[in-house]
UniProtKB/TrEMBL annotation:
InterPro entries: Peptidase_C13, Thiolase-like. SUPFAM superfamilies: Thiolase-like. Residues 1-22 are annotated as: Disordered. GO terms for molecular function: acyltransferase activity; cysteine-type endopeptidase activity. GO terms for biological process: proteolysis involved in protein catabolic process; vacuolar protein processing. This is Uncharacterized protein. It comes from Papaver somniferum. It comes from the Eukaryota. Belongs to the peptidase C13 family. Gene3D superfamilies: 3.40.50.1460.
């Protein structure tokens, strides 16, 4: 091992002699469970043009720009436009039934649509949607902002610190999800670690 890199797993920095371009490119598909190592490299042709606003491109770190680009490209590749994204939320006067949701998750698992899934559901009194009906063996870690009998607690509310901009008259998050998502220092390599981070006091 040299300079923190495991021998035998170093990307060959060779150059294509005809095009004089680096051989490092986008990773098309990769499952990290087989490789407990880091992948390093810089895509010289990387550009945020057409995907990320120029103002953000100038200010954000390159790592964040990679994430934004990849997310936007995935949405585009999946045909998920802004119009479709609006349909993915719960429309007025419609309901999400527990059995329907669990049946979809079972089908996705049987089709191999995911290897493991963290499912976060944001709503009051929603633990009941999984309680007793989500079977084991689907490789799903389901977490909700509240249990079946309680409401969620809002945060980033007007007159709180920090508070939202004056044009907002609503809370912009709830305590559970905000605490979970803002825990930048948590490393979550496994379900047991995810439970520890999620259930921390």
């Amino acid at each position: 091992m040299e300079s923190g890199i495991v021998d035998g797993h170093v990307v060959d920095p060779s150059v294509d002699s005809k095009s004089t371009e680096s051989n490092i490119s986008d990773i098309e598909g990769f499952h990290c469970s087989s490789f407990p190592i880091r992948i390093a490299g810089e895509i010289k042709s990387f550009s945020t043009e057409g995907w990320v606003a120029p103002k953000i491109s100038r200010r954000a770190e390159k790592f964040m720009l990679y994430i934004l680009n990849a997310g936007k490209k995935a949405l585009d590749d999946g045909g998920i436009s802004e119009e479709v994204m609006n349909e993915l939320g719960m429309p007025s006067y419609s309901y999400l039934y527990a059995n329907d949701l669990v049946n979809v998750l079972k089908e996705k698992h049987s089709l191999g649509a995911y290897k493991s899934l963290v499912f976060y559901l944001e709503a009051c009194e929603y633990k009941s949607i999984f309680d007793g009906i989500l079977p084991k063996g689907l490789n799903i870690y389901a977490t909700t902002a509240s249990n079946a009998e309680e409401s969620i607690w809002g945060t980033y509310c007007p007159r709180e610190f920090p508070s939202p901009s004056s044009e907002y008259v609503a809370c912009l998050g709830d305590s559970y999800s905000v605490a979970w998502m803002e825990d930048r220092f948590a490393i979550v390599p496994s379900i047991s670690e995810l439970k520890r981070v999620t259930l921390r006091p």
